[in-house]
Amino acid sequence: MKNLKFFMMSTMIGSALVLGACGNGEKEGNGNGEATEQLSGSVSGDGSSTVAPITEALVEEYALVQPDVKVTAGVSGTGGGFEKFIAGETDFSNASRPIKEEEAAKLKEAGIDYTELEVAYDGLSIVVNKENDWAKDLTVEDLKKLWIEDGTTKKWSDINPEWPDEEVVFYSPGTDSGTFDYFNEVILEDADIVKAATLSEDDNVLVQGVQGDKNAIGFFGYAYYLANKDTMSVVKIDGVEPTNETIESGDYTPLSRPLFVYVKNASVKDNEAVYDFMKFTLENAGDMAEAVGYVRSPEETYKEDLKALEGLK
């Protein structure tokens, strides 16, 4: 994720967001003129690669406020993150889809209570190679025809006879990804994805694949498109391009979706560092989401989640 991290930090440099300068005293400012108690300890998380840019940005800024708290966040995909969460290996789990019933059942069986926190909105972006000057606007039905396995060799000309009679090259998030799950739900409708697709949990692999082949098409979170928009093109879906405005308004449908962090209740109660980092996340997720290319959730959502978090103490 180095390319995205460089973009993310470059975007954030010069931001008006001031979270407080780091000092060596017991207390320091938190940006609101209040003293912040200095903590130590560790916080562990894993999960969605889509949510990762927000978390990475938060971790960078949190280190300025609480330098003695070590926050780690892996990127195993939403499903992989939940597996570690269920196993009791992490304090929080990033997810680009709501938790599944079977995952919730396993957490209950393991005796792990959790709370869902919404951190931002994303517009799942369909992208093509920069040299592709034909597939500028696709319908949901076009996406189904392209991406659902039906035993045929997929060609661009299958969508429009005037388009190239060349095979489409597919790049998709892996099956542990919440982005894959969401695409599967709203586009594939649980049908099999085209067998020719290259699947990867690493979104940078998908980016490089689309960049390297004129006939490529892929999909991933909006921030990854923004980080690479000079080297690929985004496709309008039913005439609507994903932008902050269309994602926030809901006009970019059905590919707009909320992004989540699931936190273990016991970790919040027993580990002050976990509570503090989650509180910091909710207080700053909107700004960080916008800094890395996503869309902030309504302020009321953050307030409600903060109240829920405080109730776990």
Automatic annotation (TrEMBL):
It comes from the Bacteria. One of its GO terms (cellular component) is plasma membrane. GO terms for biological process: phosphate ion transport. Part of the ABC transporter complex PstSACB involved in phosphate import. Involved in the system for phosphate transport across the cytoplasmic membrane. It is found in: Cell membrane. Residues 33-282 form the PBP domain. This is Phosphate-binding protein. InterPro entries: PBP_domain, Phos-bd, Phosphate_ABC_transporter. Residues 1-21 form the signal peptide. The complex is composed of two ATP-binding proteins (PstB), two transmembrane proteins (PstC and PstA) and a solute-binding protein (PstS). Pfam families: PBP_like_2 (PF12849). The keyword Manganese does not apply. It is a lipid-anchor. Residues 28-48 are annotated as: Disordered.
